[in-house]
Structure formats: structure tokens, C-alpha cells
Design brief:
9 helices, six-stranded mixed beta sheet, 2 domains, alpha/beta, globular
Length: about 240
């Protein structure tokens, strides 16, 4: 199994604040990796470094075996890197279908006629077919979360980055979203998922990475990581 993503000693600072402190890890193709850590640990910064929205001060990022450390975000998207955002960012005046059409045409650099069938499959996968002609501004929170996931999937990613996609959902809504994400993963998509809703994360991922103050303090199987004294003290706020 090859590595779809590798970070080697990636470092980033904003002034005196080091937000990524020598981060190194690998993600095998087809795996689901969860990322946890307290607020301010550097999780979203890590995503911005992986997607190219930020350029590291030092270190290297390799995607599908190629050094992409200074490759712009749009090229990474075209190469199969998709991302959702913590706060859904749809085009509110466009319908759900139109949102996905924009993502598919620009994310794959293909004409609309070539992506319509793919968009229909994504609508079905993410259970949005019933609201395909609804303006995105009129969706419920669960539907907006599903649309955020669907927009990332419309770009046909090989690597899908999910940022807090379960936040704010009821238990029932969260369970439905987990089923959708599990289905995408079973279809072969590699996933890296930042999430505070731990039961959602551990229902899907095979490994957990723990960040604290921009450093990796744990990486392993979920049960092993959650049993770690350091993780419980830092992430869960439990004195052991």
C-alpha cells in the first residue's frame, strides 16, 4: 500500500507563535485518519498547510509521491485533494445541484456536460437528491453539512479532508452523516477528519493523530490513543 500523503518536519509560525512544530506523519492510500486536539492545537492550520492555503516555513509535504510543498491549492484540488470547511460555505443563491456543478467543473477542469452524471451520483451518495433544486441558503444544518461534504466529493477527490463536519448535529443527524462518510470511505476514498465529536470519529477512522500546540503527541489506533495518559490529560482535561 502506497502513501498518499507524507509530511516531513513541517513547521509554520505566525510571529512568535509556532502553529506547526516539526509535524511528521504518513497516510496510506485508502485509510481514514482522525485528528483530535484542544482548541488552538493547530488542527485547521495543518489542513491549510496540506491543501496549500498556507506555505510552511520549513519541511516538506508529499502527495501521491510528489513534492507539493509550494504547489498552489487549485492545482492540489485538480490533482485529487478535496476539502470541507468547518463553517459550510455554499453559494447560497445557487441551488444544491448548481453548487455541485460549480465544484465539479472547476475542481476537475471539465465541461458541465461531462460532470452531470457524476453530480447526480454525489447527490445520491450524500442523500441530497430530494433538495437538488433547493437554494442552498434555505437548507437545514444537516443538509448544509451534507452539501459541504458533497461539494468536496464533487471534485472527485482521492484524498478527502473533513473539518468538524459533525459539529452542531443531533445524535440522529450525526449517525446519518457517519453512515454517509463510512460509505465514501468504503468506496476507496482516503479520509483525514478533524472532529471534536469523538464517537463519530472513532466509528470511521482506523488511526488517531493527536495535536497539541502544533506538535504531534500521539499517533496510533483509537483505543490505544484514548488510553494514553498524556492524551487524557491534554485533550480530555483529566488529571491521571
Amino acid at each position: 500500500m502506497g502513501m498518499i500523503l507524507s509530511l516531513h518536519d513541517v513547521t509554520k509560525s505566525f510571529g512568535a507563535l509556532k502553529v506547526a512544530d516539526g509535524i511528521s506523519f504518513d497516510v496510506p492510500e485508502g485509510q481514514a485518519l482522525g485528528i483530535i486536539g484542544p482548541n488552538g492545537a493547530g488542527k485547521s492550520t495543518l489542513f491549510n498547510l496540506i491543501t496549500g492555503n498556507l506555505v510552511p516555513d520549513a519541511g516538506r509535504i508529499k502527495y501521491q509521491g510528489r513534492d507539493v510543498t509550494r504547489i498552489p491549492p487549485m492545482q492540489r484540488c485538480l490533482d485529487g485533494m478535496g476539502r470541507s470547511f468547518q463553517i459550510p460555505q455554499p453559494f447560497t443563491g445557487l441551488t444544491v445541484f448548481e453548487n455541485l456543478l460549480v465544484a465539479a467543473t472547476h475542481g476537475q477542469d471539465r465541461p458541465e456536460s461531462a460532470v452531470v452524471d457524476h453530480v447526480a451520483r454525489v447527490l445520491d451518495q450524500t442523500e441530497l437528491m430530494g433538495v437538488a433544486n433547493t437554494p442552498a441558503g434555505g437548507l437545514s444544518l444537516l443538509q448544509r453539512k451534507r452539501l459541504e461534504l458533497a461539494r468536496a466529493m464533487a471534485t472527485q477527490p482521492k484524498l478527502l479532508l473533513l473539518d468538524e463536519i459533525a459539529g452542531g448535529l443531533t445524535d440522529g443527524e450525526c449517525a446519518a452523516l457517519i453512515d454517509t462518510i463510512r460509505g465514501l470511505h468504503a468506496g476507496g476514498v482516503t479520509i483525514i477528519w478533524i472532529e471534536h465529536v469523538l464517537h463519530a470519529l472513532t466509528a470511521v477512522v482506523e488511526r488517531l493523530l493527536v495535536l497539541d500546540f502544533g506538535r504531534v503527541i500521539g499517533l496510533g489506533e483509537p483505543a490505544e490513543i484514548m488510553d494514553s495518559r498524556e492524551v487524557r490529560e491534554i485533550y480530555l482535561g483529566i488529571e491521571v
